[in-house]
Structures are given as C-alpha cells and as structure tokens.
Specification:
Elements: E1 2-3, H1 4-11, H2 15-23, E2 31-32, E3 39-41, H3 45-57, H4 62-70, H5 75-111, E4 122-126, E5 129-139, H6 149-162, E6 170-176, E7 180-188, E8 198-202, E9 205-214, H7 220-232, H8 236-241, E10 244-250, E11 259-266
Antiparallel strand pairs: 1-3, 2-3, 4-9, 5-7, 5-8, 6-7, 6-10, 9-11, 10-11
Helix pairs in contact: 3-4
C-alpha cells in the first residue's frame, strides 16, 4: 500500500488532484483509515491513474474519462490515441514555431528601419548561370510571403541525392508578372543533368546586390534596402518587375539563423 503522497509522486500528479479524483469517484483509494482518514492506494491502481491522466491530456472531459475507463480501454487503443495526439502536437509546435520565427523576423525588420542604409548596395554584372531547379506558380492574390521555399528545396535535394549530384551552390529566384508569381529553387550545375529537374539557363544581368548574414526569414531587410536604393536611383521599375535572386553563400544544417545570403535585384534596362 502507498500513502497518498507516495502514490501522487509515483503517478506524477498532485495530492490535491488525487483528493479531487477521490471526491468525484474517479479514483477511489483502496483503503481509508476510518479514524484518521488516511488514504492508501494499491500499486495496481497506478494503471488506472496512468490511463486517467492520459485521457485527460488527450482532451477528454472527466465524465467521458469515467465512461472510457468503465468500458475498459486497453493499452493498445490508448497507445494509438496518444501517438495520434503526439503527432498533432508536433505539427502544431512546428506551425507555432514558424509563426514565431516570422513575428521575430518582422520585429527585427521594424527595429532595423532606423539603421537601414542604402550604401551597402553593390552594383555588378552577373555572368550567365546554368541551374538545375524546380519551380511552382502562385497567383498574386494569394499569400506570396507564405511560399515554402524550403519545401521546394527539399524536392530538389531528394532528386539530386538520388543522382549523387553536387549540391554546393544553392540559389532561389522569383519572377513576377501581373497575374502570377513563379518561384524557383535549385543548384548551380555547369554541366550535370538530373532526372526530374529542369535545366535553366539564366542570362547575364546587371543587379543591385546586398549580402547579409542571418536567417532566410530576415532577408526582407535586404530586399527593402535594395528597394530604397532603387527608389532614389531611378530603378523603381526593377522593383515593380520583381525579379529577385537569393544566393546562399554559406549554409548550415544545424544553425539556420546564421546563413550568409546574397540578395540580388535584376535591374531593368531603361
């Protein structure tokens, strides 16, 4: 027999909660001393407590927990329910983390407005580039900021790894027009071909470029710095065309917040 304190510790619940379960008849002690009122629990009651807590954590109200326990829910069924709930929570955590990253990135962008400078913008000519890539189309009326570049890269990586192709120079770019946005992701490949990937020949162009270190989500600051430069140097048409490139110069699988990224805006010929 276990005292209520020991039983609570073993079950990972509070003494107050065990008293509440006793009061509503959900988990009654095996014995109660009639003179002292001291509650004692059997070791085999831990099984009921474990199921009770698991069902409660799954979101079932206590009355429904009572019914499920009375019906004799078995370990296999409960294990399946818990695994499904764990998967749902992991998905929610991932989504919440992505939202938090975007909120933090936007906050950093707002905080950087006073220090944003257009003197970091470099003008240069980019040589022709051959890229193995995939692309997707998105209507301009949809949430363009929610484009999943990482998911597009994952598809490219799967195909490149299957072909044992080199993945040393990743880049992404986008083309806008009046109705659609086309997002591309791929790797520079001077000669190789990979089944399932498009071969894209990017022409030589003049660009306005900014290099920043940080997370991909923080690159709005670089885009806005270039846009400010374009507005003051008669290149607003280039921003309107929206032909941007991002070259990932240094990346890390373990620290996605410390990438070296070059953001380029293709300059329209005037």
């Amino acid at each position: 027999m276990y005292s209520i304190g020991t039983f609570a510790q073993l079950g990972g619940v509070s003494v107050r909660m065990l008293r509440h379960y006793d009061h509503i008849g959900l988990l009654v002690p095996a014995e109660v001393n009639p003179s002292s009122g001291r509650r004692l629990y059997d070791a085999d009651q831990l099984s009921r407590l474990n199921r009770l807590v698991a069902l409660k954590d799954l979101g079932f109200p206590l009355e429904q927990v009572r019914t499920l326990l009375a019906d004799g829910i078995d370990a296999v069924e409960l294990r399946g329910m818990l695994r499904m709930r764990a998967a749902d929570l992991e998905t929610q955590l991932l989504r919440d983390g992505q939202i938090l990253d975007r909120v933090r990135a936007r906050l950093r962008l707002i905080e950087s407005e006073k220090t944003m400078t257009i003197t970091d913008v470099e003008l240069k000519t980019v040589a022709p580039q051959r890229v193995l890539a995939l692309h997707e189309f998105v209507g301009v009326e949809s949430d363009a900021d929610q484009l999943d570049v990482e998911a597009l890269f994952e598809r490219v990586i799967t195909l490149m790894d299957a072909a044992s192709a080199d993945r040393s120079s990743p880049m992404a770019w986008r083309d806008d027009d009046e109705h659609t946005l086309r997002l591309h992701a791929g790797y520079l490949a001077p000669a190789a071909n990979v089944p399932g990937l498009d071969v894209v020949e990017l022409p030589a162009i003049s660009v306005a470029s900014v290099v920043r270190r940080g997370a991909v989500a923080d690159m709005n600051e670089a885009h806005q710095a270039i846009a400010c430069w374009a507005e003051t140097h008669d290149h607003s048409l280039s921003v309107q065309r929206g032909r941007w490139r991002e070259l990932y110069l240094e990346t890390s699988d373990t620290d996605c917040s410390d990438w070296l990224i070059e953001v380029q805006l293709e300059l329209a010929v005037t």
